[in-house]
Amino acid sequence: MDYQNRAGSKFGGGGVASQSATNADRRERLRKLALETIDLDKDPYFFKNHVGSFECRLCLTVHQNDGSYLAHTQGRKHQTNLARRAAKDAQLGKRREEEGYTGANAVQVRRNVVKIGRPGYQITKTRDPITRQQGLLFQIQYPDVGTDVVPRVRFMSAYEQKVEEPDKAYQYLVVAAEPYDTCGFKLQAREVDRSSDKYWTWFDQDSKEFWVQITFKTEREERYSGVPGLAPSASRGLR
């Protein structure tokens, strides 16, 4: 930084930098450091949303430019969350290996089970009449599923799957139930509303049909998610 041209400083001397100037210099140094060590195209937590802002999917923060995101990755919050995620993945992988799982992120599979094919399914687009939130309703048929088997569902990022080239604009809804093949549905990488009335699953034991309802957050909630001091939206007030 150039300190000699600051007000009140002598030529050749270093003036006292303000707090804002010091913070700006620190952010620039962190951004340059991150550029040397991070490739944003391979960062699984880096996401550019539909309004042009950048999001950290690990810390749920929003950034106006890539420099702000890079500086965030060098901060204490992001590094702490990375350590927690690594410890959690290591613990989860160890437990699943002990229980006979095929991998750290695999769906539980019983050995020597003969698969009988893919289940039938139906997908219906939905929209909440009050909040105008868009969503999807999945109806999956498992007529030959075992009496003690309940289908399981999870969300998978584009970087976890090995079927096609990863595209961070998409995510996957994976549903598994023996002895059927595990099926996955490709969705937009939009944040899902986890409220009990917006996201739910139900298995009808009589008809052997599995229901999954997901609802995406509104554009306002996606854009300002995690912003401190944000007033609640109209949709939250109505619930």
From TrEMBL:
This is Matrin-type domain-containing protein. PROSITE patterns: ZF_MATRIN (PS50171). Residues 54-84 form the Matrin-type domain. One of its GO terms (molecular function) is nucleic acid binding. It is found in: Nucleus. Belongs to the SF3A2 family. Keywords: Metal-binding, mRNA processing, mRNA splicing, Nucleus, Spliceosome, Zinc, Zinc-finger. Residues 1-25 are annotated as: Disordered. SMART domains: CactinC_cactus, ZnF_U1. The keyword Transcription regulation does not apply. It comes from Baudoinia panamericana (strain UAMH 10762) (Angels' share fungus).
